Amino acid sequence: MIVKESRVVILTGAGISAESGIRTFRDFDGLWENHRIEEVATPEGWEANPQLVWGFYQQRRRQLFDVEPNSGHRALADLEEYLDNFLLITQNVDDLHERAGSKNLIHMHGELSKLRCESCASVEEMMEDEHLGENFLTCKRCEGRMRPHIVWFGEMPMRMDEIQEALLECDVFIAIGTSGHVYPANGFLHTARRLGAHTIGINLDPPENVVFFDEFFQGKAGEILPLLVDRWTNG
Ligand code: APR
Known about the structure:
The protein is α/β, with parallel strands linked by helices. The protein has nine helices and eleven strands. It folds into two domains: about 5-20 and about 70-110 and about 155-235, TPP-binding domain (Rossmann fold), CATH 3.40.50; about 35-65 and about 115-150, SIR2/SIRT2 'Small Domain' (2-Layer Sandwich), CATH 3.30.1600. The longest helix is centred in the N-terminal third of the chain and has 14 residues, at about 50-65.
């Protein structure tokens, strides 16, 4: 189904990082690392209690030092090496795809490793030890307060124009480790499919939109992906 010339778009969600030890969102009664989503992942939550939200994301950042990419992340980097036309879109804010070697990558929900100024919108990298404390950081340009460079509920995902264009042109669309609950990522499957792309799903549990996949593989991404990528890249 996949050859070197195929235009492949991949969407990943929390499930691909689960085997690295990062918890998914919807497996624990709607709590994210013991917090209600509205408390730590909305602009209203940030307004109401910025110190709590800041501390929460600092913890998530420190966790990145304790985790490593797994065989699922690495298989996707191998697939990218093989293909001429590949785009990886992730809903994850961790950096495990890039650490595994993925290059053409869009973090549609933002990145833990970056901050954005609330006043001038400039974006800065911030994973040095001196950045990871409990005090707010200020912008190097204008001294405004920096916020997490994360797309919260109610905010617009990043780089949607590029994503849309790639979806309209792709031959194969693959969704991995995502529950299909969150708009607009859960609509990518339909966009790609409508224009004739072959659609493949890989997930531990059947996701919301499972009936729309041409092929569905149930199980762990870290076990299934290396086998599939080996099959695709070795004919
Ligand atoms: N391999 C494959 N799939 C897995 C694995 C695994 N090892 N472990 C768990 N899964 C599956 C679960 O069965 C579940 O369907 O991954 C999915 C994770 O779903 P969610 O926790 O809902 O995560 P995701 O779809 O990425 O959430 C989307 O919601 O909270 C927001 O912004 C946040 O980006 C996130 C978005």
